[in-house]
Amino acid sequence: MLKVLSAFFLVSGLKEYSCRNLDLSKAEWTVTNANKSIHIPASVPGGIYSDLISAQVIPHDIFYRFNDVHVRWVAHDDWVYTTSFTESQTEYQVLVLSGVDTISSIYINGRFLGNTSNMFVEYFFDVKPYLKEQNTVTVRIYSPISEALRLSHSLSHNVPPDCTPPQFNGECHVNLLRKMQASFAWDWGPAFPSMGIWKKVSLQCYNNLSLQHVSTNVYETDQAWRVDISAFLHTSMSVRHVSMEVKMDGTLNVEERLVYTDTSMEVKKDETNTQEDVVIVKKRMFVKKNLVKLWWPNGYGDQPLYNLNVLITYKDFKLSETVTIGFRTVRLVQDPVPNNKGLTFYFLVNNVPIFAKGSNYIPAHILPEQSANLSTVNRLLYSAYLSHTNMIRVWGGGLYESDMFYALCDKYGILVWQDMMFACATYPTTGEFLQSVSTEITQQVRRLQNHPCIAIWAGNNENEVALRQNWYSTSWNESLYFEEYRELYVQTIRSIVTKEDPTREYVTSSPSNGKLSEKENFIADNPYDPLYGDTHTYNYFVNTWVPSSYPVPRFCSEYGFQSLPSHSALAQVSRPEDLTNLTTAFMTHRQHQPMGNVYLVLLIERQMDLPKKDPSMRTLIYYTQINQAWSIKTETELYRRHRSILNPDGTGLTMGALYWQLNDVWQAPSWSSIEFSGRWKMLHFYSVKFFAPFIISPTLSLPSNNLTLTLVNDNLTNVDDVVLHVYIYRWNSMAPIKHLKKFYTVKKACSEIAWILPMTAEMKGYTLDEIFIRTTVTDSAEKPVTHDNFLFPTSLRRASKLMKPANVTIKSIRQLQSDQYEIHLKSDNIALFVWLELDLPRVDETLVYFSDNGFHMIAEDHIIKCTVPGVTPQELQHSIRIQVFNDHKS
Ligand code: BMA
User: Fold this and answer.
1) Residue 396 CA: which ligand 1 atom is closest?
2) Which ranges constitute the DSSP H helices of 522-616?
3) Does ligand 1 lie within 6 Å of residue 424's CB atom?
4) What average pLDDT does the structure give for the chain?
5) Which tens digits make up the pLDDT trace of 77-123?
6) How many other CB atoms are there within 10 angstroms of residue 427's CB atom?
7) What is the pTM of this model?
């Protein structure tokens, strides 16, 4: 998509630097433990667990059975990374460590350079005075478990929570470390307290000046886009009269070349970075609006991106960097709701209100060094894109993701709700800690702000509500903890974010009440208030298949239910006897949520009967996935129906639905819609339908028996003359007892009630228990313009008593392309939640796609497509396993 930038502008008389930067990631590294009993080759970037796996010191599958606990000794030890290099040039002077995890001491040729204490910070050490021909760099990384404990003793008061709940098999005091918070375990993940040099290491050379980074802020003005460019330069001396030239090239046919030159630059010292002498060179450029095209979120238009080349010249020298930018505006609208209570909370992109659809992202791997694997991350974000995701939340317990992650979000049109990396805890506010956080936030905002995908910054995950609701017993000195909270997220982080990036909104927490939280001194009375800001909704004690069980917020940035991952995922990391039931030691070990397995069964049993005899693990998995998919579908459609609907109590006007969670870090029960391997759970197939731009959503009111059909159209065009179809079926026959139609014109960008149908008159004497409803919308030529949607007025438990057993088989498989097949299915009866699984261990799961899954067959024939490389149709036929809710066995 992106055109490569033409060679940068050459100014005659300029010479390039003679010295080269040295990439030490390419050098040979070794790693040794404290007592030197282990001495193995190491990778940089990398991490100790990955190194020990490669050297076969620990098992190659750290997720097998109880290995997370068996290999915990690794994080109790210290690890010393070393490399040597020979270099005759002496201009090298700065050792740059782009990411060290976490507490370490750095040495060159035995000379102590300094310590690191924040894995999100890039460190710079002046090494010129110590360089020889033969040089050794040593990075001594201290056990994060011991360091966290040591820090806990140094605090003037408790900074809770101390440890993870026992079910997590985790470690303590992770909140005292500026480290991925989930690496000491979470309710969906194991503890692997990672250690290592997880980002690149280099020696940078410069005589006078080095260009570290270019950041941009893009503003819309009447006639043009204003791009404020900041170039961050390191220098060893005081510089004057630096000049900057900017050149831009893009993805679209821009006739006119954009070349800007200016020599009268503003040069000033940056106060926020105390580690190095940083000079910021600023330039403002104006780009005529007709020269560029708008960047749009997924579903609203294209994602044109432009390369911006910045050329810095100083005296005889020139330095250049190219960054990618996009042109769009994003605004968070929090306006009073006319004639009602509360404030709105929605994103306006290019002046278009966007209903945010998507999920929450956790790191793609529990080992940070493996979290930026291109094919894994691409599979996840592409899967999100396929399910019409236009926003993803990078959750605060993980990582500021890689540049590649945000570049993919730019490409797919996925807006990013970016949390700062603080989650579910209180945090220290010592001078040292705040200083470290300041550097972290400054660097991360500058690194990420060029990406048009970033829509909002948020201070933390759930820390406002945790204080207000006393989750960590802070009420003994509420004012102290409240004050410290404000010191961190308001005085420190907020001031930096608003200074560095005035183009985006910053909310202190998720959830928060937005402007109301600010008014309530940043710790609102009820941060879950549905009339303000965003909320997180979890409740496992309600009927999750009926919409009335859920509150209706303005914006739901987290909601979810657990399910089990596929049998093949669990089988990969267990023995057969581990999978006999949910209470084996293995299944208990994998379930981190306290009571999690009880909830799983409870939620199933509210809707369906598990097969009489002890249900097999396969059946349990299948049922948990049905429950998860249908519950999230119910909740998401409720939110989408409320896009334009305001209830008398002031709730409604919902403009965001980001479910918890997109992905997984191991094979275990979790809220994810995609398994660790990349395989989609049933929920992900459902998300493709419930997030579709245009849906028809049926609901039933009792006791009136009125069927309400709501249309939700996120598209920016009206749709004339569509036909709404309602089919009424009995549970035991594929022939509908009634088919009703209505012509309709659908309005753009809204939800609306299109039809209220009194059902009693239409049911031909059957009761609501005996029927179910299928709805769809077609154009006037009867071509479907929505997916089918279903309403089950009764529980599946009762329905299953009336259903005939269904036998679903593969009638034929046709090869369409080398890796694409058409699968023709047959059923003898109505078949619910038809689930296809490919059992072919040698096939890479990340390359397998089904066009649909978990669907209902209300006709004998059903055709789906399957993408799978390197199989024959016969092989495919034999390796597809089919599960049906109402099969013969139940
Ligand atoms: C919220 C999240 C995560 C957690 C999820 C499920 O609290 O922010 O911390 O994994 O709920 O419990």
Assistant:
1) 8
2) 567-572, 585-590, 596-607
3) yes
4) 92
5) 999 999 999 876 656 678 999 999 999 999 999 999 999 999 999 99
6) 21
7) 0.95
